[in-house]
Amino acid sequence: MIFLSVGSELPFSRLVKAVDEWGRENSELDIVAQVGKLSEQDYVPLHSEHHDFVDPTKYSQLAEASVLMIAHAGMGSIISAMTIGKPLVIMPRRAELREATTDHQCATAKKFEGKEGIFVAWDESEIGQAISNALEYAKQAQFKRAEKFAPEDFIRRIRSFIVEA
Amino acid sequence: MGSDLHKKRVLAVSSSGGHWVQLMRFRPAFDGCDVAYMTTEPGCREEVLTYATERSLPTPRFYRTVIANRWNKLAQIRVVFDVLRVIVRERPDVVISTGSSLGFFALRIGKLFSAKTLWIDSIANAEQLSFSGQQILKHADVCLTQWPEVAEGDGQRYKPDDRRPEYWGAVI
């Protein structure tokens, strides 16, 4: 199963449509999609099970059960994939297309591109290739889960801030 | 865990999604404190309760408010009232947030009630501070970015007298 998620704030039709159409051509893997609250102009998936929102528990269950995660380039998705140990395809939201308020997801995608198990599709035309690369990688790679918590030194400094308050 | 933390009252605030995921990654820093959380998604409650049980920590208090983006003024007013109510009840020593506008309001109001405030800008903001981060920069006791290059600036981003965010590391 492939788990697609776009976060809870805004729909992301460009990504949902690209993945749904990929799914039509490549039906051996089911797709479960979290698509946000769709309005009239948004794309409704035809080939994927889809939910407006999933709560954090359901999100973890779907992520754990998947072979591959696909998401907008949001940090929640990136950190979740890294800690659960799943390959991840990300596509950044673009401000000029009114998919986000700023282009920060492009900055995020640039920073995380090339990290272990993370594949960037810069736009919808690159989705198919990114998914193929990620699935190929999933077959070969042994996934090392990222630590569940931040590095100790970071936690220690925040703790010191609290102690001194 | 050190007894020095027992009396510290911590209010940890963030919107749900990525900001919350980041907040959860440094929550061991609050172990032993008197902790309350505030966010926008009721499903987050279970996560903090489970953690407290696993570590034999006191049950943290949990508050929820509505999602308010920067254009929804009505929702923002509701958030301000909810934050005010929580801060009056909690009287935190420390208010910590990873974002977004909810965290901004929590730090501003926390400050009015003499709390020490820590802003940790989302790791998503790899090239400049978030909108809320830029707004809180001059108000927070400490404002962190998770990217060293954002702390250093590029010589143009910050004027010589501007306050700059600090870099202490990152959540991942």
TrEMBL record, chain A:
The Glycosyl transferase family 28 C-terminal domain sits at 2-140
Please name the SUPFAM superfamilies in this protein's record: UDP-Glycosyltransferase/glycogen phosphorylase (SSF53756)
Q: Which GO terms describe its molecular function?
A: hexosyltransferase activity
What domain of life does the UniProt record list for this protein's source?
Answer: Bacteria
Q: Sorted alphabetically, which InterPro entries does this protein's record hold? A: Glyco_trans_28_C
Protein name (record): Glycosyl transferase family 28 C-terminal domain-containing protein
The lineage is: Bacteria, Pseudomonadati, Pseudomonadota, Gammaproteobacteria, Cellvibrionales
From TrEMBL, chain B:
* Species in which this protein is naturally found: Pseudohalioglobus sediminis
Which InterPro entries does its entry note?
Oligosacch_biosynth_Alg14 (IPR013969)
What is the name listed in the Swiss-Prot or TrEMBL entry for this protein? UDP-N-acetylglucosamine--LPS N-acetylglucosamine transferase
Q: Which UniProt keywords apply?
A: Transferase
GO BP annotations of the record are:
dolichol-linked oligosaccharide biosynthetic process
Q: Does the keyword Transferase apply?
A: yes
List, alphabetically, the Gene3D superfamilies matched.
Answer: Glycogen Phosphorylase B
Q: Extract the GO molecular function terms from the UniProt entry.
A: transferase activity
Keyword Coiled coil attributed: no
Which SUPFAM superfamilies does the entry link to?
UDP-Glycosyltransferase/glycogen phosphorylase
